[in-house]
Amino acid sequence: MDYFYLAAAVGAYAAGLLCQSVGARRSAPSGAGVRGLTRLIGDPVYIVGFACQVTGFTLAFLARAHLPLYLVQGAVCASVALTSLLGFVLLRRRTSASELAVFGVMASAIVLLLVVSRPSNSYEIGGLALVGLVTVAFVVAGATWFASRSAGAVPLACLAGVSFAILAVAGRPVASHVGFGLLADPLAWLVVVTAVVGQLQMGLALARGSTTLVGSVMDAVTLLAASSVGFLLLGDRVGDGLAVWVIVGLAACVGGVIAMAAIEKSQVRAMSKDVAARAGRLQTYVPEG
Fold it and tell me: Would residue 84 count as lying in a domain?
């Protein structure tokens, strides 16, 4: 059942990211701060995307109960490539052979991680580690205001990645004992807070940059940070003698999302040159007098 949760989460995340991108582009101006955020959360398409993200979050949360973070976050990373594919199918966006190749590489990487991973229950997070997670969460939330004052999407995408990494780390032990007792569990509240903060950071980033760029940066940060902490603190396991293949799989996932961002950047540059060339050809000389 955990693997079903994971597969469904990837689909929900991809659909949500696509809808949020459409909503953010038409509702929030590139220099937006609090006012832009207010417009953003009132856009119906963005709300649908947010609902898909919540669904994906819930399914990924359930998958983390027994699956290691490197597998869950690696699969979530692949949702960026799936988003590009959905954009081609549903919105008729251009999808190049390079993008399809990256999608194939990332799909292969997830299969590799599935083969080498070993399900396990998470270790409990001690008091000192909890204080550290809460401190980082507060710092990242506070940094959002400063990052939102710039026009770039990358700082906000990085902050969203850190927020979602904290969510993944805190959510792994919480998912193992779901029940009414979670209301008194500080880790559960940390999951909720970082989920909301991460969504807001991602929304602001999407208003400034493309879906692929924001998703690539965000997922790469989350994957590397959460996977590292999962091995160090949560007891994530891998098959005997197969650790090197985890590194290969994670590297392929990170490389895939970076490649997707690079491909889109080159496409935007090519389109800009094409538009400029057409404009030059359409210019008409009008003689004076």
Answer: yes
